[in-house]
Amino acid sequence: MPESVAGREEAGTAGVAGAGEGLSGRARQDLLSRTALGVFRLNGQFLAVSEELARPAGLTAARWQVLGAVLREPLPVAGIARTMGITRQSVQRVADLLAAGGLAEYVPNPAHRRAKLLRPTEAGRAAIARIAPGHAALAARLSAELGESAFAETARVLERLAAALDTLGDPAGEDPAIGEAAEGDVVVGDVAVGDVAPGGAADPS
């Protein structure tokens, strides 16, 4: 692991360990704030990087995400929204644009007559395939910067955090996959930044 990254990790770990097992309420709030701010920053960074990776394929980050979500199997819009942590309205907008552009298509859903399934067309799969070289190069660079075991642990921690928040539920008592985008959200590509959950990036493979 590069010294700069290792040093930052050691400093952060020491700060938490120094607080002892019984953290104060304020210390817990500080941890939550640091986590949230870090995730918000990551969200913006990943959106910017995704826009750059997707551009050679003629896609935006949002269209890449939605196409990536249905590569393995067709899904209804609501299912894509739940998987990605994006509002149904945002997914619907992007899905309609993909269908209009010939990159995806709606097909009947045997389980629900009204909720059609979205699946990629051959053109959509070809567009995703054009992103693969840049995606692989970025993965290699991040692995070299963090170290392979730290890279894997980072993914596991983010997955655990997302699962924990799912278990706790939305503090406001609303389903984020149902509500409208909040006023003031910044739109990048086709999706409001505030709608995108950091752990919900689609599988670009």
Explain this structure.
60% of the residues lie in helices and 7% in strands. Helix 3 crosses helix 5, helix 4 crosses helix 5 (88-100) and helix 6 packs across helix 7. The protein is built from seven helices and five strands, in the order αααβααββααββ. The strands form two sheets. The chain has a three-stranded antiparallel sheet. The chain has a two-stranded antiparallel ribbon with strand order 4-5. With 205 residues, the protein is mainly alpha-helical. The radius of gyration is 19 Å and the shape is globular. 24% of the residues are buried.
C-alpha-based Rg, rounded: 19 Å
The chain-level structural class is: mainly alpha
Helix content: 55-70%
Task: Report the sheet-strand fraction.
Answer: 5-15%
Helix tally equals 7
The dominant shape is: globular
> What's the N-to-C terminus distance?
26 Å
Overall average residue pLDDT? 80
Name the poorly predicted regions: 1-20, 175-205
* Biggest sheet, spatial arrangement of strands: 1-3-2
- Strands, total number: 5
Q: Could you describe the largest sheet, including whether it forms a barrel? A: 3 strands, antiparallel
The succession of helices and strands, N to C, reads: HHHEHHEEHHEE
Relevant terms:
disordered C terminus, mainly alpha, three-stranded antiparallel β-sheet, about 200 residues, 7 helices
